[in-house]
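Design review, sub-item: ligand-bound model
Attendees: FS, YL, KQ
YL presented the inputs for the nicotinamide-adenine-dinucleotide complex:
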Amino acid sequence: MIEYVDEDFGFFKEEFKTDKNLSKILLVTGGAGFIGANFISYILDNYPEYRVINFDKLTYAGNLNNLSLIENNPNYVFMKGDIANKKDVKNVYEEFNPDFVVHFAAESHVDRSIINPDIFLETNVIGTQNLLNFAREHKIEKFVLISTDEVYGSVEKGHSSIETDRMEPNNPYSASKAAAEFLIRVAHQTYGQRVNVVRSCNNYGRYQFPEKIIPKIICNAMQDKPIPIYGDGKNSRSWLNVKDHCAAIDVVLHSGKSGEIYNVAAKNEISNIDLAEKILKKMGKPLDLIEFVFDRPGHDKRYSVNANKIHNQLGWSPKINFDDGLDETISWYLIHQDWVKDVISGEYMNCYQKNGAGIK
Ligand SMILES: NC(=O)c1ccc[n+]([C@@H]2O[C@H](COP(=O)([O-])OP(=O)(O)OC[C@H]3O[C@@H](n4cnc5c(N)ncnc54)[C@H](O)[C@@H]3O)[C@@H](O)[C@H]2O)c1
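KQ shared the predicted structure:
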């Protein structure tokens, strides 16, 4: 069932339809989530002539407050719908006839995928195929899937995955993202659709749901609550500011060679325990808030991707220094405690209480 949330939607609808020759129409799936919301703001800032449709089911992770700064922008509209539901997907394509699709919508939390893989297959796999089917029918100019470095699985120290490395996912979330990538490949190889895949390392920044490690550390520290860290805390991840990721998606959308996969990362590799200590020190909080908890089953030890291809071929490189980005993120969460309160008072808390640590 699709709902138009904005009362002025009729106005937007006409604009979207009649100005097709003057501007590009961009369908963003999952735009009420962390990266999607940042990406919509980025596009509206950088492409004032573009029209952007945010198509989102508003799961526990989707929050329209993430778009409060741009909700009145006449070039933006929200449409509620489920990518796993063919009728919803058909409606959004028929309503707006987009030029581009940037596909973020996903179930994105590894711990949840271990407990309930089914919804990950429905959204991340079936949902992606639905979007591709209608993209083909509507002759979409470019379809970009936002994937993850987790599809490579755990990577040995000293190696950074390159795009031609084998995908070896180890949990239901990363397996569902790998499956979605294969569907993108098929769309290109069999049907000649114009597609790209972006494989990013872990992102951080404003609007990230506090089940993920960086906002979880900040939010727990703010309240002097224990900070759960899996196992020995030595698992390491690379971190990229969400604004740098948005810029990378922009270059891939507009300049990426169809059919290609692009890794995206900054050289900010750090273990979970070092990350927790770094944030606590920045916040002036005691390190003994850290509490080691039972490790996640199948927990990948290390992710690391080599981003030379996007740098050499498309000229993208990250701009934001990790310490500066972390400082800005900590300040954002401190200033937006109401946002935090809202998101953690919902379904998330029930799941958190049932399932323990809940950290990516
Ligand atoms: N967060 C990261 O560090 C990271 C890193 C690499 C890749 N990614 C990928 O980027 C994308 C966005 O990640 P995120 O962290 O912003 O996720 P998120 O969980 O914050 O947001 C996901 C959004 O998708 C929506 N959604 C979920 N199921 C849907 C469905 N069936 N139909 C329509 N909308 C649906 C949710 O309501 C939410 O708004 C995902 O595809 C994820 O795999 C994330």
